Amino acid sequence: MSPDQFQRQLLAWFDSHGRKDLPWQREISPYRVWISEIMLQQTQVASVIGYFERFMARFPSVQSLAAAELDEVLQYWSGLGYYARARNLHKAAQIVAAGGGEFPQTLAGMCELPGIGRSTAGAILSIACGQSQPILDGNVKRVLARYHAVPGWPGEARVAERLWQIATQYTPSQRTAAYTQAIMDLGATLCTRSKPVCAICPVAAGCQARQQGLTRELPQAKPRKTLPVKQSYWLLLQDPAKRILLEKRPPTGIWGGLWSLPEFDDIAAAGDWCRQHGWMVKAPQVLSAGRHTFSHYHLDYTPLLAGLENPINNVMEADRAVWYKAADFALLGLPAPVKRLLQQHYPEDYYDENG
């Protein structure tokens, strides 16, 4: 099947069966497409819809996003993970707003914005600006790797380059927005990772993986490696006013800029830290341990629930450590496991409003 035939078959299927009612498919603009594309990285559509709608209600324009405090942006991102995406959104919005509020109209210019790579730039320019720009997100990689039976893991440079060549060859000069959404839709709904629905795929006739019986093998998975495990103790410290101490993490790195619980290598270190602040702390209650998995390691954490026996007699640095009541938790950007822990162990009468 030639590229022209592939395009025609795919677009005909999209016209009849494609998804056209997703929130970011309405009132299409570079800003809305950009926000949706960043949210959809590493995250399923069903999970993104609610976040996108809340985010757009609060930050309806690039100017409103640029003018917001990073803390608030992180609050609206809390739970989506990969928080560098939110920090880069904020930085990029400030750059665009400072330049007059218009997004770049070239691939190179778009890729200069923080957090925007080649595929995201192509999606914005094709969907919102009508340019003939290829994309290569996870769904498109899967479709093209199967269609041309491209061996190897798409994360490898040589495999990615081959897929970019195919993507460029198959991207039409007309109806680029529809084509871009169509090929993403095909990967998300029919050409899925497991159990692809080849029987009703509009381009199945030309799919080499189907012809060769390789749909389960392609694209090849990332070579497995054993993830290291890191240990941490989280101090859930409550003062006499029934407030919980939260610390702001550094602006970069894991959970950068979010509010989290004080972390320690062991229980003794947590006790030493409290004594350094002049606090008399009851013997901590060791709560059930949990695990949070990042892309490059597992974090095993053990929560320590402790209460102060004496009033607070020192002043914390408000920009990095604050005593919060449960009613304030919903106003903060919190890592997902910290939010779950607070919801689970903070007394219900102090969490009713936001729990």
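Above is the first protein from milestone M3; the second protein from the same milestone is given next.
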Amino acid sequence: MTEDFYSEIKTSTGAFKWYCAGEWLESTSAKTVAVLNPSTRQKEFEVQEVDSAFAAAKEAQKAWAKTPLCERAEVLHRVAAVMREHAQPIADCLVKEIAKPRKDSLSEVIRSADLIDYTAEEGLRSLGQGELLNSDSFPGQTRNKLCLVSKVPLGVVLAIPPFNYPVNLAVSKLAPALMAGNAVVLKPPSQGAAAGVHMVQCFAAAGLPKGLVNMVTGKGSEIGDYLTQHAGVDCISFTGGDTGVSIARKAGMVPLQMELGGKDACIICSDADIGLAAKAVIKGGFSYSGQRCTAVKLVLVHKDVADDLVAKVAAGVAKLRVGAPEDDADITPVVSESSANFIEGLVEDARHKGAKFLTPYKREGNLIWPTLLDDVTPEMRIAWEEPFGPVLPIVRVDTVQQAIDHCNASKFGLQGCVFTQDINQAIAISDAMETGTVQINAAPARGPDHFPFQGFRESGIGSQGIRNSLAMMVKTKSTVINLNQPSYAMG
């Protein structure tokens, strides 16, 4: 029974335990962190706050690094199978913790299992390839040296996923790290920690050697610096916002893989298919209430087609259902009261500076109705800042170059999209946009999970996607064989 499967992850008081060296433990500090339901703003779960689990990870990693790739892959395939079998309770946590619609919550868990399976297979191919170099290819050298180039694990990876995809973006770090021979210390987001606990139980139940995955919970404001600057950290994989910039400044020589904020711009040219563009803007801007790094966060539309686009988008937004995640509403409460307050501040700044409201702004607690703003100007905060909520600004531009310039003036550069029926123009605009990924005639999207995914400027460091993450989780080692060259008698 799935209920019995997850029974050991809670304390007698109902708080979720932390996971270290293959055991579910109670915190010695006895501290807990309340996880509030965004819909009700009442406590839904409690998670424990702990010190560290790096010693267990470092010890377990030594043996794991010597484990054959095929055996690592077998373990990951078992994890994926267990996760599919016990997916629903993880999905239920997502509904209650982060107000993600029910169907999307289950989809995230299944997508995560698929990612684990793919990582195991890709790891067998990419990590199993080495290189042999001969010294005589360099001028002045003879064939007296052979260089064997191999990939070896980094050691212990600190994985920190965000609240909006606490399962998928956790396994996108865990699976490559483990397949590459590393151990992991996972710090789930406070809002999303219960789902993280359930997910880690799948790794434990699949027979992963003890100590390879350890999970600590607690407030990032209290334990974040301790974790990210711990001497046992050999790599940090982080997904989040401005906190990542602070981590990068303090991390020193530790390899970093970071996906930070985004202000994903949608450029709509005068020759675009406006019906297609409008549908993409609605889906891209308001899915999961805009709480996605790849959400459309700014529309830059050519003035010649702006009226047509605005009318179509406004009509579509009016049809979005607002309500509870349990009812699979299109717009559900944002994750916290502080997030709702920040979004409201951006909206009121735009109102004060003359933005046109195509939909009325309405808020009840953490629930914000979809808000569409027209005639947005560069003087407004919403033109530059990331709301991470169901608010979409529209800027009318005179030229495509004006749209490109606005995009490139942003401190962010995660994703963007271009709508035009001229493929030559599409490629030219993509080349000009200083953005990690540009989608042509579609809204921004992270997946499929094996595609490269990266940000420019303050949107990130390094590249993700399964193969890129596997490459990030190893370092190159050279073994040079020095040969004694015999002298051969001729004739």
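Note on the second protein: The first strand starts at residue 18 and ends at 20.
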